[in-house]
Amino acid sequence: MIIYGINPVLEAVRAGRATDVVVQEPHGDRVRSVIDAARAAHLPVRGVSADAFRRLVPDGVHQGIAAHVRPAPATTLEALATPSDEAPLLVVLDGVEDPHNLGAILRTVHAAGARGVVRQSRRAAPLDGAAAKASAGAVHHVPVADVVNVARALEELKTLGIWTIGLDADADLQYDAVDLTLPTALVVGAEGSGLRRLVRERCDRLASIPMRGRLGSLNVSVAAAIFLFEAVRQRNRGRFRA
Predict the structure, then answer these.
(1) What's the burial of 115, exposed, middle or buried (CB within 10 Å: 0-12/13-18/19+)?
(2) Which of 27, 86, 131, 239 is the most exposed place for a label (fewest CB within 10 A)?
């Protein structure tokens, strides 16, 4: 895979996933700091012309730096649901295919200290390019479990002790009235269509984010961020109040 952008490349170097770094010449001080980190990690660094770099990265805000990276290690539902010092907090993606939304969700998952992401392998957005750039490098730190079927994955998560909460704009229950100190998987659907019927039916509860404006919904990555940091707020408080 190839990724681009200063933060994604730097985090790939730090995570030990980069195999080499390619730099558009001439470059500035911010790129120089990534080059120094790559060389300190004994990675090859190659400078190329602007035309050669555009052939490598034809689209995207690349900031003049790219890297080839190894695929992330595979993870499983069992690994994500394993009990630890804090109750597991996961995000399950049902049909989220836009790489910018995927990257933004990965960034928030990492920032909130959540355990990882579950997504359907078929038609999933790749974890390189735009998704890696939008994640600001979080793609290298957030475990992602690819599953064949999201509805069946929710059933498996339940057997592993995970409480599944679907985000649905029509739900009567508000998101901040849910006990998120429990082992929880937030289930979010694609923009426009939302959760698919079978996935919605498999959720233990459905919850909504109240809207005051004329628009009926939020961007899926924004909605996931609101939910995740409500979980952080509840867990930092140490106890749940109805």
Answers:
(1) buried
(2) 239
Report d(CA 44, CA 68) in Å as an integer: 11
The tens digit of pLDDT for each residue in 120-171 reads 988 777 787 788 878 888 888 899 999 999 999 999 999 999 999 999 988 9
- Helix/strand/coil for 99: helix
DSSP state at residue 175: G
H or E stretch covering 183: none
- Cα distance between residue 181 and residue 169, in whole Å: 22
In this structure, is the dihedral angle defined by the CA atoms of residues 62, 63, 65 and 71, taken in order, positive or negative?
negative
Structure tokens belonging to residue 205: 């509860």
Kindly list the structural domains of the chain, giving each domain's residue range(s) and its CATH number in brackets, ordered by start: 2-69 (3.30.1330.30), 77-237 (3.40.1280.10)
d(CA 14, CA 6): 12
Contact 63, 5 (CB under 8 A): yes
3-state SS, residue 2: strand
Structure confidence at residue 215 (pLDDT): 67
Which amino acid would we find at residue 205?
R
Separation CA 162–CA 54 (nearest Å):
45
**CA quadruple 83, 88, 93, 97: dihedral positive or negative?**
negative
Please report where in the chains the tokens 């602007």 appear, as a residue: 50
Kindly report, residue by residue over 160-199, the tens digit of the pLDDT.
999 999 999 889 999 999 999 999 999 999 877 789 999 9
